[in-house]
Amino acid sequence: MICQSIKREQWVDKLKSKLLKVPYVHTIFTLPHHLNSLARNNESLIYSLIMKVAWLTIKSIGAKAKYTSGMTSILHTFGSDIRLTGAALSSIKANDLALKERNCKRRLAARYSHYLSLFFGGMSKSGAWIYPKDKHKLDKYRSICASYKAIFIKELRTLHKTGKINYHNDFEVLIAEVEKIRWVVHSTRPTMETKIIEDYLAKYINRIAVSNKRLDYIKDSEKVILLHNDYTNQQAGQAAPKAFKIMEPLVAIDQILQHVLPPHFQKSRSYGIHNHSSKLKTTIPDAVKRNSQTIRTVFEIITELMKLHPYKCEKCGSDHHYIEEIKPNKSWILTYINIPTPRPPPQFNSLQKPIPK
């Protein structure tokens, strides 16, 4: 797994280079479990739609306050027990960064999720930074949930009318069902400690749904045992206890493969000011800019992951070394090494008769 760790650390370095000196919020946009079947049959479309609608929701909040926010989002489809958990994780500048709480973990058990890291507020066209009216949240909880649901259903209807959605049941019945329920959008309080967000989002980058150390095959009973976190029986303020899930081999294979993303799908995306094409980047005030984060080399990351220590001089103990190029000296061997003079070949006398064979 060292190769995936290298890619993950490089992704974190790139994320740090984008962040500004403003509060960030961790927000989780979830998809109701009623849409699981639709998502399974239209993975690329629904996954992209979750990320797109999450940004449109944040964008609509900023439009009311006349500012443009910035967001980094990650798609998350699996839980500890490898069931479908559709979520979009997002980092929004001072807007939605935080750890999932115990109750939220339970609600997300059968949903797709989208994790976001967002600005808390945003920048106006003049370059001034604007914060939301409420110092603890972007908008009212019910308002965010309602906006997210309305925009998602509108975009979903558009895809269905154009014939891009493949669904075997009555589409309108499905829409009527999800319109009756509240869609969950979990958001935490803003924080300047962005390292919490960076480490949390990095957990879902360049990783598989389940590692080999959590899986075991019992040959006698022909069963697969999965070790996972049991959030149902988790006590407040304590880590979730471990539990075992027993499955048939084909069921285990199916649950693992359902989390393989479509080919060329971009799991992490940036929106608003965080997007590379944003013209507002040139107007960002110096007061909110950070020192540019250096992208570490592969060697530096491997050294840190493997906890290797740099070589130190045996005499002075210093690890400050410099490299000096020593050019080859072609005459060194002839100068310092005495090589016996090789015996010359015998001279041939033209008058000498050749020896008969």
What structural class do you assign from the helix and strand content? Answer: alpha+beta
Helix-strand pattern, N to C? HEHHEEHEEEHHEHEEEHEHH
Specify the helix fraction band.
25-40%
Instruction: Give the N-to-C terminal Cα separation.
Output: 72 Å
Please, what is the average pLDDT? 79
Overall geometric form? extended
Write up what this structure looks like.
This protein is of the alpha+beta class. It folds into two domains: 2-208 and 262-329, no CATH class; 210-258, no CATH class. It is 32% helix and 18% strand. The chain is built from ten helices and eleven strands. The chain has helices spanning 2-18, 36-41, 43-65, 102-107, 141-161, 171-179, 194-202, 249-257, 298-305, 332-336; strands at 24-31, 70-78, 84-93, 112-119, 122-123, 129-130, 185-187, 215-218, 223-229, 242-247, 268-272. Strands 1, 2, 3, 4 and 11 form a five-stranded mixed sheet that branches. A hairpin with a 4-residue loop joins strand 8 and strand 9 (223-229). Mean pLDDT is 79; it is low at 94-111.
